């Protein structure tokens, strides 16, 4: 019998690479061979950020193909990434699979591609290989993408995805209602980017029909209405839980693990953990207000400040005297081992941009949230946290759109002085973990999937 050989292809962004790597690791544990395809650019970053031990431990084969962008082009420009992928990456993927199948004993038997790369499912279909779409975000977001034709028909958006007027979209009860201006393709960059992303979504809505499975890193317990609305989406998550299998493999930045020792020295449930994922950038004023808000809160904090968080010089990034004043009361790192941080008993709350991975990581660790969304799906996730699960609070902005220091202090106090938030967060954690534990719905779904890959 042919040993299943899976080719896994993530969208080239941190929040997509980590969960697909996690899924791949689980499949390797079931005896499958996995070839994981990053872009050349991200492959270099992943290799640089990986520790020697994870390199030795890892049984996933890491390979790469060009992303079609010039070396100096901005990889955070999602429109450019999407366009280049549809031409260059598409061709390179076909070449890679052909090469593997000609040269190696174990031919590719299954392609698992990020749902955002629907073209990869088309390549697999042309090559007569079995196909799986992987969705590393909320099921509600994919259900929303699936509803694009209906939104056009109802005159909510035009053929380019542009809202015809400001209104709330309610897909179903208990799915967060979303403002048209916060639709994922609307709040993702300039108008060209918005158009490219919307067109890609429409194409993906068609290509995803070629997939035998649409796997989603969420659970029925977390999003019952979304999975009822779009039953073709199948929950296998939340995979990124405290029992995370992959150590640092897949990170674009090297983890600073020294912050765990600093956390060990802090009182239980005292620390504010602040992280904005891999994309978010800050305007200098807002960055200062956040720093001063943390100082004002007078609680210990662990803050992830990526080297590329703003276009101001890092040496002058902080308010005058801030670093001296906070001393060892606050810790700043450029990339944290986030899973471990969120599972640490000293952490009291998570001030987060509400990327989906960060959201489910906080949920899986029973940590309440302060939500600071920026773009894409982060507003939808904020609404899950604050309105549906009620495990966090959102910030208010002033007339200039700034979240002021006193607002930060006030929400920190409100969240941490009200034990109901922590209580609900712990209940939600239990619910989330139940899904992935033996016999849980996501666990059963994953096992069925494994059997299918074997068959
Ligand atoms: N992350 C991390 N260390 C950090 C910040 C983030 O390991 O200091 C990880 C985090 O655990 C999550 C991913 O990076 O798995 C970010 O994904 P998310 O969907 O939350 O946000 P995005 O980067 O896509 O905006």
UniProtKB/TrEMBL annotation:
<protein>
    <submittedName>
        <fullName>UDP-glycosyltransferase 83A1</fullName>
    </submittedName>
</protein>
<comment type="similarity">
    <text>Belongs to the UDP-glycosyltransferase family.</text>
</comment>
<dbReference type="Pfam" id="PF00201">
    <property type="entry name" value="UDPGT"/>
</dbReference>
<dbReference type="GO" id="GO:0080043">
    <property type="term" value="F:quercetin 3-O-glucosyltransferase activity"/>
</dbReference>
<keyword id="KW-0808">Transferase</keyword>
<dbReference type="InterPro" id="IPR002213">
    <property type="entry name" value="UDP_glucos_trans"/>
</dbReference>
<dbReference type="GO" id="GO:0080044">
    <property type="term" value="F:quercetin 7-O-glucosyltransferase activity"/>
</dbReference>
């Amino acid at each position: 019998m042919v040993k299943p050989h899976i080719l896994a292809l993530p969208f080239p962004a941190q929040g997509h690479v980590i969960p697909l790597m996690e899924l791949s690791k689980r499949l390797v544990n079931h005896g499958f061979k996995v070839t994981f395809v990053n872009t050349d650019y991200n492959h270099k970053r992943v290799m640089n950020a990986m520790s020697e031990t994870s390199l030795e431990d890892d049984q996933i084969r890491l390979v790469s193909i060009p992303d079609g962008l010039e070396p100096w082009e901005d990889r955070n420009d999602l429109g450019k990434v999407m366009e280049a992928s549809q031409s260059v990456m598409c061709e390179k993927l076909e070449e890679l699979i052909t090469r593997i199948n000609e040269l190696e004993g174990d031919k590719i038997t299954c392609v698992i591609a990020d749902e955002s790369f629907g073209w990869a499912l088309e390549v697999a279909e042309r090559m007569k290989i079995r196909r799986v779409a992987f969705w590393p975000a909320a099921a509600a977001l994919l259900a929303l993408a699936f509803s694009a034709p209906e939104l056009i028909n109802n005159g909510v958006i035009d053929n380019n995805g542009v809202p015809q007027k400001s209104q709330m979209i309610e897909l179903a009860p208990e799915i967060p209602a979303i403002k048209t201006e916060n639709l994922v393709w609307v709040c993702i960059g300039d108008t060209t980017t918005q158009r490219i992303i919307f067109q890609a979504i429409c194409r993906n809505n068609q290509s995803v029909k070629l997939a035998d499975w649409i796997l989603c890193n969420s659970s029925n317990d977390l999003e019952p209405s979304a999975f009822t609305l779009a039953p073709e989406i199948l929950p296998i998550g939340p995979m990124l839980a405290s029992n995370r299998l992959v150590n640092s493999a897949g990170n674009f930045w090297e983890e600073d693990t020294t912050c765990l020792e600093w956390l060990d020295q802090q009182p239980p449930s005292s620390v504010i953990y602040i992280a904005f994922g891999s994309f978010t950038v800050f305007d200098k004023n807002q960055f200062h207000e956040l720093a001063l808000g943390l100082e004002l809160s007078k609680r210990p904090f662990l803050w992830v400040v990526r080297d590329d968080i703003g276009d101001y010089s890092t040496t002058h990034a902080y308010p005058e005297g801030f670093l001296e004043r906070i001393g060892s009361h606050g810790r700043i790192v450029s990339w944290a081992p986030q899973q471990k941080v969120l599972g640490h008993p000293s952490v009291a709350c998570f001030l987060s941009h509400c990327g989906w991975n960060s959201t489910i990581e906080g949920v899986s660790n029973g940590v309440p949230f302060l939500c600071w969304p920026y773009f894409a799906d982060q507003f939808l996730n904020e609404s899950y946290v604050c309105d549906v699960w009620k495990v966090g609070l959102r910030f208010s902005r002033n007339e200039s759109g700034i979240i002021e220091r006193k607002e930060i202090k006030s929400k920190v106090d409100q969240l941490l002085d009200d034990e109901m938030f922590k209580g609900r967060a712990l209940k939600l954690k239990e619910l989330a973990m139940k899904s992935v534990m033996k016999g849980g719905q996501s666990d059963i779904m994953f096992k069925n999937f494994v059997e299918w890959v074997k068959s």
